[in-house]
Design brief:
6-stranded mixed sheet, 21 helices, 10 strands
Length: 636
């Protein structure tokens, strides 16, 4: 079995989807791709800055208008009190104050537009940093790191500069959780291979569609620039308001009739007082009594609502924007459409929630508490609207949160596809046996400096990879694993062509001791191998094993004997694997059983210096560099 077998010419739906990849039909190198992407994000940045400048000028005009209108209203009131007794000055003051409120409304709208554009500008700035290899601005997913997972710790899936760090553009905690679950659960799906393959193909199409929605993705990601939106906490907070027994009296018809009658009576008293029919103090006393009653009856309910909103105010605002954006976008892929369908009714829900938050915001001022309650009983109507909103929408919010999380994850994956036009969608077969065929495979972390290799892993076969230190063995093993993780999650892989089946994955490359629990390095290796054996035996599907230096924690002869024993035992199980080793004696297993064991190597050239070509070729490595490099270090 060679490592350079052709992959075949069968084209699946996944390959058809891959053809829609942006720039997929263009022959361009990585440098050209980076320049194109940098130019795209630079144009987005320039557009945002130009609009921000325009909105800044508009904002200054509105603020000036607000000041002038407020001073004019105050002047009219002063004229009525100190100079002329005509009531028309009060009506003029009221009209000017109404214009002030209109200007204030447009100023708030203008500020919100500025905030959105500032977020869009940050998205473009962050993506430009990512193109230059700086991923510190993105979520690194370190909280998901688990050294006992079957492969994520070895393959750098989570943590600083990890796979998650490079992919995630999630705006919600639910989306980040879903992306982490997808990346860490390869092979754990209980569905048959045919069903799993079809599901991955559908996800590939969803990712490809999302990659083409540049404007939508940027607007979506901009909603999370203030930090991850805590989806579960938002739902919990709103449910907690309901659990605090918000007064149900406000929802009744009798309460509504009483409120309308009170407002009408107050305005009637104002009109009669202006006309001189009743004493001028009557509407004043009516207003004071009405204010005390409405605040007193709704105080506890509003305190509960205010507490829930204040702790998650920005998150709720952003979450409202997320749902509005998702429900207004047009999708064609079945997977994304199914998630969007779950959001039916969510748009009306968030509009109602937005109005509630606006009302609570207005209440955080003297005008909100006094004037709006005097003229419109706003506290009563806020509680009433919440009761109606809760009864109609609250129970559905957890379902909506799940749908938002799924699409949030797709946005990250689509952005990854857009940012890496050289990556291609793999063919995922429904073969029951292990299939892994790759042409021009490279590690995604290396970018344009990566050396590409062809490699094929056959079912129940083992590939012993030898080579000097720094020759590329471990990086190659990780490239095999990381690209397989990408393939199983519906994302493009870093290879010219790739064909794989749906198998399970296990690696052992970075074993660590645990002195706190009295576990030595060698003991930790044994525990990891025991975990590997149990994992292989626990599933009906084949397992792909990626191993780097079995039994590193013992002496050379013991290590060789133990490694041979282990590999012989694994060759009888439903698994295949790639094993990197410095022990050239282990390569003799290919002489004893050439049907299952195969030798590959990363060779180096030693002259005045050591030359690495990072090419994997059939055979056993002959040149080692440790003695040579140490001799140069010692001056010998």
């Amino acid at each position: 079995m060679t490592g350079k077998e052709t992959i075949g010419d069968n084209h699946s739906a996944a390959e058809s989807t891959a053809d829609t990849h942006i720039n997929s039909g263009m022959e361009e190198n990585n440098h050209d791709s980076k320049e194109r992407l940098d130019a795209y994000y630079s144009s987005c940045l320039s557009a945002a800055e130009a609009q921000l400048k325009e909105l800044g000028e508009r904002g200054r005009m509105l603020v000036t208008a607000e000041i002038l209108l407020f001073l004019a209203a105050a002047s009219f009131v002063a004229v009525r009190i100190f100079i002329y007794s005509s009531q028309w000055w009060l009506w003029a003051a009221a009209a000017v104050f109404a214009l002030y409120l209109v200007a204030r409304h447009f100023d708030v709208v203008n500020d919100r537009l500025k905030e959105r554009l500032q977020s869009l500008r940050k998205v473009a700035e962050d993506e430009k940093k990512g193109l230059d290899g700086d991923f510190s601005v993105f979520d690194d997913g370190a909280r998901y790191a688990d050294m006992h997972n079957e492969y994520t710790f070895d393959l750098d899936v989570f943590g600083r500069d990890s796979l998650f760090n490079r992919i995630s553009r999630c705006v919600t905690t639910g989306g980040a959780d879903e992306l982490a679950r997808q990346l860490s659960s390869v092979g754990k799906a209980g569905m048959p291979p045919a069903e799993l393959s079809a599901n991955i193909s559908m996800r590939q199409q969803a990712v490809a569609e999302m990659a083409g929605k540049c404007d939508f993705r940027q607007r979506f990601i901009s909603l999370g620039t203030g930090g991850l939106i805590p989806t579960v906490r938002i739902v919990d907070a709103l449910e907690s308001v309901s659990a605090m027994n918000v007064s149900s009296r406000a929802a009744g018809t009798a309460a509504l009739a009483a409120a309308v009658a009170a407002i009408a009576a107050f305005w009637l008293s104002v009109v009669c007082a202006v006309a001189g029919i009743v004493p001028g103090m009557l509407p004043v006393w009516w207003a004071l009594i009405q204010l005390v009653v409405v605040i007193g009856l709704n105080r506890r309910s509003l305190a509960a609502m205010q507490k829930a909103v204040e702790t998650l105010h920005d998150g709720i605002r952003a979450y409202i924007g997320v749902i509005e954006l998702l429900t207004s976008e047009t999708f064609t892929n079945k997977f994304t459409l199914s998630q969007q369908e779950k959001l039916r009714g969510a748009e009306d829900c968030v509009r109602g929630l937005d109005k509630l938050i606006d009302g609570l915001d207005r209440r955080n001022s003297f005008l909100g508490i006094v004037l709006f309650n005097v003229f419109g009983l706003t506290d009563f109507f806020l509680v009433r609207h919440f009761m109606q909103w809760e009864d109609k929408y609250l129970k559905a919010m957890r379902t909506w949160a799940g749908a938002v999380s799924s699409i949030d994850e797709l946005v990250s994956e689509g952005t990854m596809m857009f940012n890496h036009p050289a990556a291609k969608m793999p063919v995922v077969t429904d073969d029951a046996k292990l299939v892994y065929q790759a042409r021009e495979l490279w590690h995604p972390f290396l970018g344009s400096s990566a050396r590409k290799n062809d490699f094929t892993i056959a079912d129940r076969s083992y590939y012993i990879v030898t080579g000097a230190n720094m020759a590329g063995k471990s990086t190659f093993l990780r490239a095999l694993g990381v690209n397989y993780v990408l393939a199983m999650t519906g994302m493009p892989v870093f290879a010219a062509q790739m064909r794989v089946s749906c198998v399970r994955l296990f690696s052992s490359m970075r074993t660590q001791d645990d002195l706190t629990h009295g576990i030595s390095y060698f003991n930790a290796e044994l525990l990891r191998l025991k975990q590997l054996i149990d994992y292989v035996d626990s599933g009906s599907r084949p397992t792909l094993l990626i191993l780097d230096e079995i039994l590193k924690g013992t002496n050379s002869q013991d290590k060789l004997n133990g490694s041979r024993m282990f590999l012989k035992a694994m060759s009888e199980k439903n698994a295949a694997g790639v094993i990197a080793t410095h022990d050239l004696e282990l390569s003799k297993m290919a002489d004893e059983n050439p049907e299952q064991f195969h030798n590959y190597c990363f060779e180096i050239k030693i002259g005045e210096n050591v030359t690495y070509d990072y090419r994997i070729t059939p055979g056993v490595a002959r040149n080692q560099n440790a003695t040579f490099l140490l001799g140069k270090l010692l001056g010998k």
